[in-house]
Amino acid sequence: MTVSSAKEKTSHTVKVEIMGKQHYVPEGLTMLQAMWHTGHELTRGVGCLGGICGACPSKYTTPEDAKIKTALACQTQVEEGMSFSLTAAYYPNRKVVSDFKKMEDPKQEIFRLYPETALCRNCDACTRACPKGIDVRTGVWKAAFGQFKEGADLFLSCVMCSLCVPVCIADIAPNQVGLYMRRAQGIFFNEKSSHLLARLEEIEQGKFDAEWEQLLSLSDEAIISKSLA
Ligand code: FES
User: How do the domains of the chain map onto residue ranges?
Assistant: First the structure.
């Protein structure tokens, strides 16, 4: 989308700097919308636009504060004098393929898969970088101490934007550690839902095969009208 931005300030525009270039954009836009408005073609760094997918990590400064702050660009409104850019939209970080089926003790295994987890130096930079307000540092310590339930709960709203990764002086990828804890907690420690297990067994026994076949035979229009009925 290419829309030219205003050339000068009006009562309804704010002056921003996007990747080093000044623009006037309508107030109330999010950082992502401001980028579209000024003709930036975004092929990466855009996803759900709802703060869920973590595709739009960005960094910005404001005139009052030289400190570089982090945000999700789809969730943060532009303000006068803001200077911003999307980050790389992806930070290379070491993803480990965890084979939970073969694992006996995920609380010990984390030290083999993510040995740096135990090296947190408490600087808290990860927590300050998190646009979702997660207490990331505490979550990493929960992982190191095997307190997966509390750790998994802390990381529940993590969207894997990876803004915590480049700021860690101990080279921990806190988002990956959090994801590992959430998975391990679900597989090994959470109480299993008896209703869900019973339903899965029914599905495997073919109890719903006829309904499923009937659904597959419907046209798109029929599915929509049924779902609206
Ligand atoms: S686009 Fe999905 S979180 Fe911003």
Answer: 13-86, 106-189, 194-228
Q: For 60, what's the count of Cα atoms within 13 Å in the CB-facing half-sphere?
A: 26
| The pair of three-digit structure tokens given for residue 160, joined into one six-digit string | 């894997």
pTM of the full structure:
0.77
- Domain covering 13-86, topology: Ubiquitin-like (UB roll) (3.10.20)
Ligand 1 neighbours by CB, cut-off 6 Å: 46-49, 51-56, 72, 74, 159
Model confidence pLDDT, tens digit, residues 135-186: 999 999 999 999 999 999 999 999 999 999 989 999 999 999 999 999 999 9
How close is the Cα of 25 to the center of ligand 1, in Å? 20
| Nearest by Cα to 174 from 123, 104, 117 | 117
Q: Judge whether 96 and 87 are in contact, CB under 8 Å.
A: no
